[in-house]
């Protein structure tokens, strides 16, 4: 007996097939050979017969003779009739053992047949040498509806169902993707639940969903609006200034207009040569609507009541990277597959959208030339210079890979460019995730039936002249239209296919669906282990292997589809970015003390409970001071926007209060270490409370001192504590900001 077959025998014995007995009263001899080709089917039957006879002889030799069998119930000798029945039963037991062994041999042969053809999707499997067909499992005893020949009807695989009734502009790309996947679409909806619901606007497009998956997260539309995005990135910039330097300096209107005007005036007084340009973006604007440029705060005042509307003012990037003397931006598609755990994918291909007038630095003469300064497709498509092209490398809309190819031909390290873009995307999602979790628990509280969520985001990124990526905005509903308008006659327009859009967008939607497939066509761990055993046996038995065996086993291609165009970046690179997830820990505390499921506001009682449970009260911070802190911060945050009229403390206000408490308690550390230390302290208090709740009465644990603050070895560590302002959020300064255009030559 070779060591190899002993190893194979042990591995096969560990696998319990359906209908197989659990007692190990039947053994497989070392000379067992699995039939993996039609020519060796007779050897399997011979081996099974030999093993069965050997097992029977061992059972006969090991049985002790019984002269007078007696009944266990009455203690009397058995009558001849009962004795004969007993003997028949014993012979029947031996027969069952032999049959079970035969079935085990057939199951093993069936397994070898399945491993020989791993790419087959058929459920019916043939046992070589037996002439029987099984339904993906070993044959079991005939049931009520069983057939005489032991065969079963092949079961058809259920198609994944997609409700596309709310898809809107992404409908054509979605239809194409579903057709490629051979799934089932319900364009008018369905009374029964679907596996996937594709919404065109928001999570609440359909309120009556209690299962399946939805392609929108609750609160995503609100979080990527200009003001909320700026606040989220600003909070992270306070903690990690060097890590979050990819977003332009921003001021929020209307509450920060006076601050904006004062800082610009002071900066000009300190440096008379500084001549900035600013871009104004309405908070709820899209497709370039309402965007304009100004050179001075006084220009903004001339617009009258415009500065009273919610908007963001950002410093304009005056030195962008140009190609063919045109300014362009990059639209990248990012899939957030889940929030807990945070899982992010980035499309390997994107779109490059070009302006239609040669770029010049902003001046009073060209300040209003939108075709020169704004890259929005919805604006430039109306320019007479816009070029629709079927080529991926030319025209006013091209693939991002064509841009990378041109940069590479000039000797530029495109791997570094991609790495910086991936870092920007991960950091931005990390900044948005904490409040998204609060929205999620409000719409789908723990324990309440509801769908799971995923979402495709559109990241608009600008490359500066020094190739540094800058985040312009994030779109919750990026356009997935794969056709464009074309004027076929004066005043007559029709939609015609766009090769560039179809190339990029169909792949993104199709592979998103593949990643969220509720029943993925992937081999299980047991099947992969069997595949490894079969590979070894194939080499030893037949001495011939298939050249494409490994490719079939790996399951790389599914239904002849191309490889995924989405690349996972988180949790793949989680170790490099986990130290940034400080606000996530604060959001967990916030949700923990909300008290009422489905709410997003922390009441005064919940805030006091947070202070008390984390043992933050001391001689320097009384409960009266805590109440004043809560009232002051909550009142100011609730008065910032007309839409925020709910009572209670929102997450952003809670983060501000947390920063304030961290600075009071840990005065000698940088801000991000102060906040981390306080989060550690609150986490230790939670663990002590949980431990105390689990201990029996009379047993008390010795309180342990909180762990010392963790010093992260990251480039964003500040040398001294940030100047945190209690009475208003920290605001950027003109000279100490994210992006310095003067560094670009």
UniProtKB/TrEMBL annotation:
Keyword Nucleotide-binding listed: yes
Alphabetized InterPro entries for the sequence: TTL/TTLL_fam
Cross-referenced SUPFAM superfamilies: Glutathione synthetase ATP-binding domain-like
Biased composition (Basic and acidic residues): 139-152
Gene3D superfamilies recorded: ATP-grasp fold, B domain (3.30.470.20)
Keywords: ATP-binding, Ligase, Nucleotide-binding
Comp. bias intervals (Low complexity): 35-52
Region: Disordered, residue numbers: 35-103, 132-166
Biased composition (Basic residues): 65-75
Protein name: Tubulin polyglutamylase TTLL11-like
